[in-house]
């Protein structure tokens, strides 16, 4: 089931159009928008498409420009950041294994909740600045216990140290509350 009301109709249609392109096969919707569609507890406005393989950023940019009015903000190997019709779109290689099966729902390729939880924990550990990451974990605790979340993180990132995750979850000095 998709909670389609959690994102703008135009954003939902853009996701479907992006996923219809052959050059974006193997790129999955992740992050807050994927959680919004799957869980429905908050609104989200951006599109994060991740693969677990390398890609040629120049070729990807050329392909996207043929089909969309993509405004480029940043490019690096395996990374494109920009916008299409004022919707932020990030396309990245995130070269870690998938811990659960991906889903295709109504033309949208979604990474599993378990993978997204692991990625949210990793974002908190490596940055700890986005309040949305903490809020997502808070809501996800309604459906997953902390031990399970830690196991998703350890499995995805081949990590054994839980202490850094636990400390990061209670360290709020760097959190930017303006993004909520």
UniProtKB/TrEMBL annotation:
A Pfam family that the UniProt record links to this protein: AbiEii
InterPro entries hit by this protein: AbiEii
Full protein name: Nucleotidyl transferase AbiEii toxin, Type IV TA system
Organism of this sequence: marine sediment metagenome
